[in-house]
Task: structure prediction
Amino acid sequence: MKTIENISRMSTFIKMMRKEGKSIGFVPTMGYLHEGHLSLVRAAKKHTDVVVMSIFVNPIQFEPGEDFKEYPRDLKHDEEVAREAGVDVIFYPSTEDMYPNGYATHVIVKELTCNLCGESRPDHFSGVATVVTKLFNIIKPEVVYFGQKDLQQALMIKKMVADLNMDIYVKIMPIVRGPDGLAMSSRNMYLSDGEKNDAAILHKSLKHAEILIKNGERDAGKIIKAVEDMIKTKQSARIEYVRVVDTKKLEDMKTISGPVAVALAVFFGSTRLIDNTTITVDK
Ligand code: AMP
Result:
């Protein structure tokens, strides 16, 4: 496994791979790798010849006052687990290389990005769309892998790829969870033991929502209330949102029908976690 730390060397490597006719699978990450990230690598290994993973804590997707500076970073550990999982190349560019002085271009996807996390993080998705576009242009992958954990992000990327005629297949992979059901996230390391125990309620509440829907509940308001009531039993929890949305445009639903997502963002102490589940209901 190689680690390549600048864009021009990455481009040279990609040119070589393409000349050899190798297909490239790409897994973009912010590092501090866990099983969720590695599940994307394993999927990429199955379908493509060369697996490139980027590790870049992208400053422009953090809102002012968010955790850009504190975001956990550990390249040595990441290199070890990435190598074991079968990554061929880690792309680890510097901020100066990605956004040199005078950088002025941003990508905005106008659908899918205003509701849910877009409400409290108005610049986040444009920051993600911009960095992902740059990474796609550098790495020129055939297939890219995103996690359903960040459902809104993954759907936005699909939309961007379609709208901008990027010749890339976007694969959305299932959420990987810990033994207590907590969705794996680099940010889980911020949680105290008590907050971590409390945060297990997120998956339980989503499971409960699934059961209610499977048993015939179609009133989105009732589902939301049931999920909120469960989360509120945990002392360290502060709900940002719990929503029932369609999975096409992520718009709020009143009556559940077709493919829907129950999505939530909840603080435990000062750590903001997101999670979701998708369910299809016959119309
Ligand atoms: P991040 O490093 O948090 O930006 O995540 C990089 C990629 O890994 C994104 O596509 C995430 O959706 C995905 N990912 C993060 N956590 C998980 C998880 N628990 N299960 C599956 N994919 C995940």
